[in-house]
Amino acid sequence: MPPETTYRFHPIHLHWLSLDVVAGAVVCHLAANHLPNGRTPTHGWVTLVLALVVFGIYSLDRLLDNRRPGQPVTPRHTFSRTYESQIGKALLGVLLLAACLSWLIPRELWAFGAGMVALVALYLWLVSRLPVKSHRQALKEPLTSFIYAAGVWGSTWFLGDELSWESVVLGTLFFIITLQSLLLFSHFESLRYREVYNLARWLQRKRTVSILNGITLLAGLCCLTVCLLTDYRYVQRLAVMLLVMSLAHLWMLRNPEKIIHNERFRMWGELVFVIPVLVL
Question: Where are the bilayer-spanning segments (predicted)?
Answer without folding.
Answer: 12-32, 44-64, 85-105, 111-130, 142-159, 165-188, 209-228, 234-253
